[in-house]
Amino acid sequence: MLQEESDLALIIAQIVQKLKGSNLYAQLERQAWASLQRPEIKLESLKEDIKEFFKISGWEKKLQNAVYSELSVFPLPSHPAAPPEHLKEPLVYMRKAQGSWEKRILKSLNSMCTELSIPLARKRPVGEQKELLNKWNEMGTDEPDLSLFRPVYAPKDFLEVLINLRNPNYENGDSHSFRTHLGLIQVPLKVKDIPELKEFFVELGLTAGQLGVDDSTQVPPELFENEHVRIGQKVLSEQDSAAAQQYIRQGSPTALRAELWALILNISSQPEDILYYEQLKTNVIQHDLLVDSLIYKDVKLTASNDDYYFVFEDYLYQVLLCFSRDTSVLGHFAYSSASPPKSYIRGKLGLEEYAVFYPPNGVIPFHGFSMYVAPLCFLYHEPSKLYQIFREMYVRFFFRLHSISSHPSGIVSLCLLFETLLQTYLPQLFYHLREIGAQPLRISFKWMVRAFSGYLATDQLLLLWDRILGYNSLEILAVLAAAVFAFRAVNLMEVTSLAAAEAVLADLSTLKVMPLLQIFLFATVT
Amino acid sequence: MSRVSVPCHVKGTVALQVGDVRTSQGRPGVLVIDVTFPSVAPFEHTSTHTPAKWVTCLRDYCLMPDPHSEEGAQEYVSLFKHQMLCDMGKVLELRLILRQPSPLWLSFTVEELQIYQQGPKSPSMTFPKWLSHPVPCEQPAPLLEGLPDPSRVSSEVQQMWALTEMIRASHTSTRIGRFDVDGCYDLNLLSYT
User: Fold this and answer.
1) CB contact, 8 Å: A110 with chain B?
2) Distance (Å, rounded) from C-alpha A302 to C-alpha A374?
3) Residue A286: count of CB within 10 angstroms of its CB
4) What is the pLDDT of residues A17-49, one digit of tens each?
5) CA A161/CA A168 separation, integer angstroms
6) Which chain B residue lies closest to A190 (C-alpha atoms)?
7) Closest-CA residue in chain A for B105?
8) Is A185:A416 a contact under the CB 8 Å cutoff?
9) What are A180's strand-pairing partners?
10) Where in this chain does the record put each Rab-GAP TBC domain (chain A) (predicted)?
């Protein structure tokens, strides 16, 4: 049909436009020029011969991976009449809510600045620059006075905003009727039910092998594990992103995980990438930002206190401080409902030539932000690679966990999915918890916002994040949250207060995620 | 193929409801929007005086997959000629009948309605006259020694022109990476409207 052809042409044009500025484009051009020397390239059939050469030498695969990456990350071209803000977020009231939330954050940060008389940003004096460069690898030993700093917001503040989210065109009666939702989220977003989830997560079914279930000590490795590892090695040698994404749905062997994630996220450490990271490091040395103190405080409060992650404290600074200076992150605001905060050079208020984004990457960290990076430290030890992986994970997934949008993987949809699953399949538990004033979302929200980092044991967390990458969706976080409640349902039915319910669900470190997910999705009688 | 916007006048929406609108508790689930075309001239008049009658050109076109949820609730939609069940050549008036069976919404409608018709074929890119039409000679002029063949030069210049146009049109969207203004990044406060 004519419309589909022109849609396809538009998508192709968009991807070509994006890839034209990339390193890959320059490399392909160089390779094409160099290949002219080869005897098999003939002038009469130049185009076909070069294409054949690309196929054999593996460059076509690299291009395929880049195209697949673009398709996974960027939304499809929208209607020509739709303005850019529609691409960020189609629903007007959600855009407005995100705008108000951002304004609150900016006001909070501004008042912190004025109270503490600390500038948002300043150039470091040369002596201070030298000092920082010297202790770059051990910034954790620094003990700056952070007592006056407070995190800009915590997940529970964000939850209150989401609870008050309303569509003005929706029947929001005060009295309870069939129209009001029984949970905390009151916006009618479309979420999947269990039959749809079973179809979506079909590879997690009971008849398929899983790492996290079928690799336990009681199961002989010949049944599943050995073959799965062999296939994983083959996928890596083929260097095919799409195949890797499909493969990892059944979990990744520990030895292959770092390479598989890099392949799926289309990260290859080129010299240019290492140089780029070094440039960011230079930016950190030269300019001191207020957000740096927020990052320090967050790391000290969360990751440093965690038994699994405190050893990586120095890595966390090296990644997060550079992340704040990375302007390439600004690109994700095209498809995020959020917008980067703006500021003006001192003394040039209102002059557009002196308008800048603050921080340079437009992302203001909140309490717990460093926990997005911490688990990755187990996989990557080289700072620039660790940095690239984290940045890609953020612009693909994590940004959706702290912005208000109607996207199926956005935190609002995840909350509604969690509440709907619990209500539908554990109605007695849901009703009981509601009656005692312990709305389940109040407990599970912090798990989902952090993608369970810091709550699960690290090997279990990595198995969970395998599936986030495999399905290119965060919905599994909501399903796991419901599955945890289902698992502890008996204890939860006995409690009589929110505090007691929190206590039952305080420690998730002994949980095995894959059996929980399988039981909830495929073995619960509906 | 270009398209030409057709000026249209969208009348106010009329809700279809059984009983008295004021006293009735429920909300209307059907809306009718009439669209008239003030300048009917672009459309052909029928030569014979057949009375105008209503013809269904689109039936049960779903805009929201689930009437109770937000999916597709605020979307831009295009409808095309090839989706229509009848010939759209002689349209005098258009009537949109909207149905929203869910009682959860306070109101529903379509906004920013725009109608287009196929315009004249856009002229292809024209080269400046002297490039594409070298001066015709009465008889082929003898080639002067040492000078290149004029028709070959003309075609090569045309190709180069096209190449420069292409290069000028294709620009990358990569950022340079600087976040400061001339090395300065001294900021006081964040600004918001």
Assistant:
1) yes
2) 10
3) 16
4) 888 878 888 888 888 888 888 888 777 778 888
5) 15
6) B69
7) A170
8) yes
9) none
10) 251-472
Residue with tokens 């969360």: A302
Burial class (CB in 10 A: 0-12, 13-18, 19+), B164: exposed
Phi/psi at B15 (nearest 5 deg)? -85, 140
Measuring CA to CA, which residue among A70, A67, A35, A77 is closest to residue A52? A35
Q: Which residue in the set A3, A109, A190 is minimally distant from B80, CB to CB?
A: A3
**Pick from A513, A463, A464: which is nearest to A487 by CA?**
A513
Nearest CA in chain A to B80: A3
**Helix or strand run (H / E) with residue B62:** none
Give the ipTM of the model, two decimals please: 0.81
Q: How distant is the alpha carbon of residue A132 from its chain centre?
A: 30
Terminus-to-terminus CA distance in chain B, angstroms? 42
**Would you call A87 an interface residue with chain B, using a CB distance cutoff of 8 Å?**
no
pLDDT in tens, A228-258: 999 999 999 999 999 999 999 999 999 999 9
Chain B contact for A472 (CB, 8 A cutoff): no
Q: At what angle do helices A290-301 and A313-324 cross, to 10 degrees?
A: 150
As a whole number of angstroms, the distance between CA B147 and CA B154 comes to 13
The Cα-based distances of A260 to A150, A312, A365 in angstroms read 38, 22, 28
Cross-chain residue pair B179–A346, CB shorter than 8 Å: no
A161's tokens = 């905003």
Q: Measured between CB atoms, which of B103, B105, B114 is closest to A169?
A: B105
Contact B157, B131 (CB under 8 A): yes
Indicate which of B2, B62, B74 best probes the interface with A, i.e. most A CBs within 10 Å of its own CB: B74
Query: Contact A70/A22 with Cβ under 8 angstroms?
Result: no
Give the number of A-B residue pairs with CB atoms closer than 8 Å. Answer: 132
Query: Residue A109: its chain B contacts at CB < 8 A?
Result: 190
**Longest CA pairwise span in chain A (Å):** 82
Cα separations (Å) of A438 from A174, A494, B115? 20, 13, 53
The alpha carbon torsion through A25, A31, A36, A38 (nearest 10 deg) reads -150
Q: Is B68 exposed, middle or buried (0-12, 13-18, 19+ CB in 10 A)?
A: middle
Q: Report the predicted TM-score, pTM, of the whole model to 2 decimal places.
A: 0.87
pLDDT value at A525 more than 80:
no
Q: Phi/psi at A105 (nearest 5 deg)?
A: -65, -45
Using a CB-CB cut-off of 8 Å, the residues of chain A touching B103 are: 171, 179
Tokens representing A378? 């187990």
Interface of A with B in 367-406 (CB under 8 A): 406
